[in-house]
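User: Hello, can you help with two protein structures?

Assistant: Certainly.
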Amino acid sequence: MSDSALKAHLTHAHVAEQLGRMIRVRAFEQACVEAYTQEKIRGFLHLYDGEEAIAVGAIPVLEPRDRIVATYREHGHALVRGVPMNAIMAEMFGKQAGCSGGRGGSMHLFDRATNFYGGNAIVGGGLPVAVGLALADRMRGEDHVTACFFGEGAAAEGEFHESLNLAALWSLPVLFVCENNLYAMGTALARSEAETDIHRKAESYRIASEVVDGMDVVAVEVAARRAIAAIRETGKPFFLECRTYRFRAHSMFDAQLYRDKAEIEVWKAKDPITRFRDWALSANLIHAEDVARLESEAAAEVQAAVAFAEAAPLEPVEDLTTHVYARERPEPPPKIAPAAPPQLTTYREAARQGIRDALLRDERVFLMGEDVGAYGGCYAVSKGLLAEFGPDRIRDTPLSEAGFTGAGVGAAMAGMRPIVELMTVNFSLLALDQILNTAATIRHMSGDQFGCPLVIRMATGAGRQLAAQHSHSLEGWYAHIPGLRILAPATVEDVRGMLSTALREPDPVLIFEHIMLYNRTGPLSPDAGAVDIDKAAIRRPGKDVSLITYGGSLWKTLEAAEALAKDGIDAEVLDLRVLRPLDDATILASVAKTRRAVIVDEGWRSGSLAAEIGMRIAERAFYDLDAPLARVCSEEVPIPYAGHLEAAALPQVDKIVAAAKAALGRA
């Protein structure tokens, strides 16, 4: 054992407790191996054999109010934290009695009762979430620590660096615990990292760091006590690099051909369980009968857990679609006529008013993003709010979309109501991991234990000659993802009022604001209220053809409808407003009335949202149609810079008019 172990004051009871915890984890995982070979546990199975000293040394030092974010090798973390073994084993078996309701499996164990915020199957994906949990604590002045466990492979990920930078920049109470087992899957650390001392990376962000022997449970405990005490005293992050070794393969699918058997044997000689047991026996801190008792108790508990999991029922297939969204949502806002007369307002100012209203109404709300402070964001939507609300609630971020979006996810999970601004929709792709893999899935994976009431705003669309990388219309991509709500406000009333409603939602909401609308004006009462985010809106009634659209294309479509009217064609214009979930009832009712439909979508034609809407109409209203469905989409090219080419690539009034006339046989 290390010098720290020899110097530590270890009682018989504490030695037995720590040894028992490690034995218990090892026994649980051995049972999982047996169940896996019997095909009772499936999927990826990542085992913690050899690394038990880290979880056992660090986690009991935390207090119940503290939070834990784990990685995909998290069985040991969950067991040591106090998640019931029966619930963990049932989760491994995919049973309804599992700690995540059978929705998460081996890599996604969650338990709200113990503040266990789950494993994350994305390498490094939990780091920004941990930062967000700590940010919520910092903003509320709460004395919590968030411990985040991850492997050394995560140190190569951008989210690692973005998270460390944010934690240091904002002085957040995060304990980063790197379980350095020397191999990221099959790639040795020396082959993948220019700097193999991982803690040096933390030091580059001026985060206090320490290296500890991760095979020595007492050394880990001493270091964890020191680190957590420092975090509670200073409020600043701390980084522990625990050098360890996994005795088994990366996962049960891994043939483990990349490691020399002699190397494995060298490390097995450092087995944290036998090492601690033998030292404690020689120091007369524990006795052979104690060891036998601990092993017997662990074996009995594991046997009972396996029996429990095998007997537990599966979740009924009828419940398949539960936990995608919250079971309960706020009632739609009542339609209240404003008392104040309407004033001519820009879309930009209406969006700003919506943010300001939210900040005034709810102290949990804050805005976070690049240049949202003094600059007011890329399109100056938040200009002036920094002076009114201060830098804590109008929070400028580094250029780190994955990092601050993930921080928004974590803060939302902790009960805050973040508004994350992604400067433009193309930058959202840098945050797609956090949006798709965490925000959209956390409720489902956790069996409804954790939600993510996050609002993400972003500018979308083309028309300003910003060329291919700043002219995307990707709303249809995001509308493909279950667990998200997607809004596309096109009017000043909607861009203000939809935000108010979205911030009351228990699930993540993405709001797409078209860049060509920011300078557009419309009447808006200063006391206009919240807006329903479930229903499409008929912007122009008609009887001859349904023109279905959303966002920036609404105004082109209304212009096209007026042009059609001059030719005696009465077009109905339907503003979708809500792209997920789509308001099928309003769409189908419009088509049933007009018997023709043209869908106008600024997204590319292939795989477009227009294609989805058209297929829904074909599936459910085919016999209502008197003409083939039609759509007007962007051309299949990256949006060009030259103005005349950009215009030719996008849906325009003349194209909409032509499509409508063709549907009526008047082309």
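That covers the first. Now for the second protein you mentioned:
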Amino acid sequence: SVPPPRASGRRGIADWARGRLAGAPPAADEPSPAAAGPREEPAQARWPDLAAVLLMALDSGPRLWERGADHPDAFTARLGTAQQAPDVLPPVTVALAEAGSLGLVGPRDRLTGVARSVLAQLAALHPPSVLDLVALAPGRAGDWSWLGWLPHLRPTRGQDCGLLFGFDARQAAARLRELTRRLGGRTDGRRTVVLVDGDPGGAEARAALARLATEGRGAGIHLIVLTEAPPATAASPLTETLAAAVATTPVLRDCGTVGVLTGPVATALRLVGPGGAPGPTAGADAVSPAWAERFGRALAPRREDGVQAPAPPSTALPESCRLLDALELARVTPGVLRERWARRRGLPLVLGAGTEGPVALDLAEAPGPLAVEGGAKSGRTELVSALAASLATGAGPGDLSLLLVEGAGEGLRPCAELPHVTSYLGATDPVRMRAFTQALREELKRRAAVAEEGGAGTLPWLVVLVDDFDALTAPALGAPGRPAAGSVVRVLDAVAREGHGLGVRLIVAGALPGAAIRVALTGHPAGRAELRRAAGGPVPFQAGRVTARIPRTSTLRPTVTRLDWARAGDPPARRPVRELGNGPTDVALLASAATRAAQGDRAATATLV
């Protein structure tokens, strides 16, 4: 048998380290382990050492991301410790907000260790909403790939890349263009730290880098410039080592502070400020590649409390848009639809894809009808079909009914399979057109009576979608529905006037005087459109499609590919969508799933009753 453990007043190393992470001093009756050395000074808690930094990422303690933009020690990093007395080891720090940029000079294997330490400290103490990190290191992806795990390198300012890396000349040029565009602007407190390791490219890239070093501080941009050189020793004094480094890397001249590694094995460091006077010799803080990899992987899943995920980067409008993708419906199943219906708020209507994500509006809050305008082959009928499908994904048949009206042709017929559609009217049968007109008039009267009794809020929504409205207002001579077209137009006019307070909405493809919201289709390419409202400027988007066949990408099995950090700085790959020639359309897939979801709801209701 195993004997029970002996009670002890001593804490384990892990407990002691976590106490250091929180900034708590050791208890009087609980001495620190021998490896801890002398009792910590207050500055040690203010400037945590690298063991505490790693624990921040591993344990997600209270000190993780503790420094906001207005913190007194914001954007300040510890570079080492200077021994002043046997038991006094004050940290040596550099404040980037004051220095502007930081240069580091020394042998490469030691130099990268110090740089890893500085970047890790900044990432552990500052949240991604306050600090961006950028790495410009052409040909050196192996040394800095660990940075890819950090959330601080995700593009959130519209950069066209996977991560803020510059591992070749093209990527570096793109990152420099993005950064120099911010020069001259005012900083909102959020800052960007740019690692520069090696030559970023040609003369244009070097000139851009020099501008960032001299003007970047005002725009919240700070460089950390690495220059490989022998350490400063008695045989190679500090001034000579620094002069040789500046000759190799001229941008060092514009760095407010430069740290030079010294000593025979380059484990000491001296800071040189703007005046040129070196500071005291300090033991340099540095970490290994394995330490940095563990730190990065530990920090990767961390998220800020109360901070929304960054919006996708702004890009050009896509050439085509699958509505189900804009609706974020990767799986169209009855269960998924029932969950969406249960979360319904208003009448959500997704129109398509914009430059920063889906373009949507709440039809319940619309002050009047919505008109879809455009010429022949501009995609009007396709967009009206997509709007019907979008509405069907936002509310169940018990909360929403759709009426489909064709002015000419049968473009909306695929949507008639949706369980929400209670009437489909083709403008070819005068008898059915008059019956439709009468039924809709009666429905308006019924809703008005319910509203007078105070029960308007209990009525399900009713949306009337009309394609080719122009063919109803001006039917061609000899059109089968010409005798009854006037009655249909008059009842639609009544819907536009009276329906808003009765839970009835109108969507029309064609010119509709007095429309509160307009969608203008340009037709170049098909589906390109602008959303125009009374307030605000036009919003461009690519209209969603629902009558196309399911794309091949929807039937492919998931695959695993090797993560290539060297290519993370490239623009995201945009594969063209290829359709299956013999598969179902998206609207047919949606109608089938919605029908089964509605049947499941009715079965559940019957069981409960």
